Amino acid sequence: MTDNSMHISHRPRLLLVYPATHKLGWERNFQLPYHSLQQVAACVPDSWDVSLIDELQDEIPSGRDYDLVGITSMTHQAVRAYQLADRFRAEGVKVIMGGMHPTVLPEEAMQHADAVVVGEAEPVMAGLLDDYLAGRLKPLYKAPIAEGNLLDVPWARRDVLAGKRYLTTQTIQASRGCPYNCAFCTVTPYFGNRYRYRSHEDILAQIASFDRKLVVFLDDNLLGNPAKAIPVLEGMADMGIRWGSQTSLRFAENSDLLKLVARSGCIGLFVGIESVTGEYAHIPKLNGHHSQKELIKRVQDVGIILEASFVFGFEDHDQGIFEKTARFIEDCKPSVPTFNVLTPYPGTEFFRQFDQQGRLLHKDWSRYNHSDVVFRPRLMTPEQLKRGWVMMRREAFSYGSILSRATQVPGRLLTNLAYNLLRRGPNRRLVLPEPGSYS
After folding, report:
1. What is the residue range of 329's domain?
2. Which among 364, 374, 425 is positioned nearest to 399, based on CA atoms?
3. Which site among 84, 110, 334, 394 is 20 to 30 Å from 229 CA-CA?
């Protein structure tokens, strides 16, 4: 060690923090734990004590009880993350920051942290902790964008979730990366332009270690590479589990793959429809052989609840997009529709474009949340976009709309009804924007 080495007479203590932008009531019992911090914990040597604070459930403790604090942040959490980082540093504790927002804006994060991790934490975490103990902590730790098709990471640590209440703690990540490079997404530029999968043996071994039936995959597109996904699905088919994940509709073009997904225990999938018309209705996640309506029906016919996500505010969207989307939903009846306002996150092509064009309304990161309008759309006003989004969410969760969708999935009526009714309250309580809100 150097002369600057940290002289710690006890086991060093690391606190990992997930910042909250709002408080939750009973809904917190239906949340999933933040997976990345569990992955960070898995990279920490056994010589350290590790604690995890989820501010949605826990109070923020004093930093004086810890030697080092790590804070993760997506863009909508950045303001709160910086507040917490400043508080911990005022207490004399060193702070490291990571996550998507510090990855795309490391210089900004450095103003609030002693060290910033850019990209994936696994390749750099051990070296960072060694540097801290040696008193030579660097301001920036940048993980290289991984090459190849193998994702080699340790199992996420679930013990750090002890005492917290979630829908399930049996979450798992099988893959990272994406080849599509959509203008509204940061995955490809920062996590690789190919799907990287863990070995199917490793994935199945981790699932076998779980003691309950429900498993949630936290992948961006679990079925993106069928050749890699199929051995996992075949292994799960003999385990008697139930699982859900996120993927694209493209997998349903292969009827054999669809049957295997159902047989493996899948009960629900989240898919991005994005737009029902225009350029973003034809992103390369489909090959054009089947319509979205056909694929939605295929998935639901095998007993899988389908949550379909729609985004409003693309360059070719005018006020007519809301009526077109409403008709699409009436026609296709996806189990649960989800509606988002286009958010040009830092690090995306849309952010660069809108920033250069002077179309960003502000850079208050706390409002970059899929619900607020933070830019000027091309073919409608910000207020019109917000109003249309609110009305779509209200109407989609009327009792009549819920009942029309809930009967579409054989054998899942009660589950589908419950899922929609849980969403009804927050959607029906949305408030229309006041005139002049965005002037």
Report:
1. 213-428
2. 425
3. 334
pLDDT tens-digit profile of 400-435? Answer: 999 999 888 888 888 889 889 888 888 888 889 888
Q: Pairing between strand 196-197 and 175-176?
A: antiparallel
Question: How many structural domains comprise the chain?
Answer: 2
In whole angstroms, what is the distance from residue 195 CA to residue 191 CA? 9
371 and 252 both lie in a single domain: yes
What CATH number did the domain enclosing 282 receive?
Answer: 3.80.30
Residue-wise pLDDT for 6-48, tens only, equals 556 678 999 999 999 877 666 666 788 889 999 999 999 999 9
Quick check: is 191 in a domain? no
Task: Please tell me the pTM assigned to this model.
Answer: 0.92
Tell me if 147 is assigned to some domain: no
353, two tokens: 């474009």
171 has a pLDDT exceeding 60: yes
Angle at 187 between CA 103 and CA 349, to 5 degrees: 85
Question: Nearest Cα to 220, choosing from 263, 183, 272, 260?
Answer: 272
Domain for residue 373, yes or no? yes
Indicate whether 262 and 374 sit together in one domain: yes
Q: State residue 39 phi and psi, 5-degree precision.
A: -70, -40
Nearest to 110 by CA among 131, 135, 80, 141: 141
Shared domain check, 418 and 304: yes
